[in-house]
UniProtKB/TrEMBL annotation:
Functional summary from the UniProt entry: DNA-dependent ATPase involved in processing of recombination intermediates, plays a role in repairing DNA breaks. Stimulates the branch migration of RecA-mediated strand transfer reactions, allowing the 3' invading strand to extend heteroduplex DNA faster. Binds ssDNA in the presence of ADP but not other nucleotides, has ATPase activity that is stimulated by ssDNA and various branched DNA structures, but inhibited by SSB. Does not have RecA's homology-searching function.
Every RecA family profile domain range: 62-214
Keyword Hydrolase: yes
Protein name as it appears in the record: DNA repair protein RadA
Family: Belongs to the RecA family. RadA subfamily.
Pfam families: AAA_25, ChlI, Zn_ribbon_LapB
KW Transit peptide (keyword) present: no
Taxonomy, superkingdom: Bacteria
Keywords: ATP-binding, DNA damage, DNA repair, DNA-binding, Hydrolase, Metal-binding, Nucleotide-binding, Stress response, Zinc, Zinc-finger
Biological process, per Gene Ontology: recombinational repair
GO molecular function terms noted in the UniProt entry: ATP binding; ATP-dependent DNA damage sensor activity; damaged DNA binding; hydrolase activity; zinc ion binding
PROSITE patterns recorded: RECA_2
Amino acid sequence: MKKKTVFKCSNCDYISPGFFGKCPQCNQWNTISEIEVSESPGAVKAVKKNSAKKLLNIEDKGSFRVKTSIEEFNRVMGGGIVRDSISILTAKPGAGKSTLLLQVANDLSKSGFKVLYASGEESEVQIKQRAIRITDEISENIYVYSDTVLDNVLEEIEKIDPDFIILDSIQTFTLRELTSRAGTPTQVMECAHKMVEIAKDVKRPRMVFLVGQMTKQDELAGVRALEHLVDTVLLIENDGNEELRSLLTTKNRYGSTGEMGFFLMTQKGLRSLDNPSEYFMTYREAGSELPGSALSVIREGTRPIILEIEALSSQSFLPYPSRIGECMRREHLNTLISILEQRANLRLMDKDIVVKTTGGIKLKEQASNLAVMMSIFSARNNIAIDTSTVFIGDVGLTGELKSVPSMELRLKEARRMGFKRAFIPEVSTKFEDFKEMKVYRCKTILDVIKYF
C-alpha cells in the first residue's frame, strides 16, 4: 500500500498536506511533525478524540443565515443560507442550475461576501459571458477557477479564503490520491467529504454549494449517500415549460422539506416570481367568464397559491371516451368523473374530458378535487363560474366533501387576492368569519352544484 508524507500538529493533531509554521487550528507555533500515512481512500485520519457531553449542557449558538435579494430562493432555503452548510443543486441540462447559482453568487458578493466559483465543466471565459448576460454589474468579490482537480481548488480556497464556494459539478472533480476516474462513486464521495470539511470548519465556516448532474430517471446522479451527506438537496423542475421554473427542496436540515419557489427564465436569467398566484390564474372581467374554469387554493410547502383549473367536455364518437389529465394521474381523474356521474347525476359516459392547470403545475394534494369537479361540471353544462369564487376541499366516493389541512391559511390567501365567495366542506375546522368574503359550508358535491 502506497504511503504519502503529511504534516501533523503535535498539539491538536491537525493534519495538512503542506508545511505550516503556525497551526491553523490551535494557533500554536513550531508544533509541526512530518509523518507518513496510507494513500488508501478508506484510511481514517488521526484526530483528537472528543469527550461526550450532556445534551442539556451543550451551548446552542443558533444558525446564522445569510439572506439574498432573491426571495423565492430564500424561501426554499428556509429563510436564507446557513453559514456553515453544504447544499447540492440538481436539474436536467439547461434548466438553469449554473445560472441560478451565479445570480446568488453575484448577489452575495455585492453584500461583501467573497465568492469562489470553481467549474469543471465550463471555462472561465464561458462563465464570464454568462455573467455579462445575466448581471448588470459584475462584482469584484467573485473569483472564478476552471479545473477538474479538487486539490487545486482546495489550494485556491486556502489562498483566496472565500465565504461562499460553488463547485460545478461535483461529478467532474477528482482527487490526485485516487486512481479512479471522475464521476465514480469513490471520487464523488471523497470530493464531497472534502467540501463538507471546508464548510463545517469550526474556525472558518463557509457556505458551500455543489452542482449535481441528473440521470435519465430524473434523479441525482451518484450513490444515495451523497444526499445523506449534504444539508440541503435542491431540485429545479421545468416540466417542458419554456419559461416557468420551480425550485424545490427534498431535504433541508435547517428548514421545511417540500418548500417550493417559482422563477421565470428570461434573457437576464431567472427572475423570482414573488406572487405566483397572479401567474397561475387568468384574470377576466366580470361578465366575461367562460365555461370550464374553476379556481382553487393549493399549498406548495408552507405557501398557499391560487390555481386555475380548466376542463373541456366534448362529445365522444368512440366506444371508450378519452380521459386526459395533463396535471394529474388518469386514475385520479377517472375517480372524480365517476363520483360526478354517480353522486351528482352528471352524464359523462359519452364525453371526452380534458383537464389541465394554468402554468402546467401538478395537482399533488386533495384540496383541489372540488375545483376539478366543478370545472368539469362547468364545461359539461356550459355554465360559467364567476372568477370571484374559489373551491377548496376533497370529495369522497360518497360525494361528501372532506376537510383538508390549513383551511384558514388558504382562505386568507383567497381573501388577500380579492375573492368574494369560497365553497368549503361543512366539517372544516371553525375559524373567524371573513367580512370581505362569503364562506359557504357544504356537505356534498350536489350541495355545491345547486348554487350554479
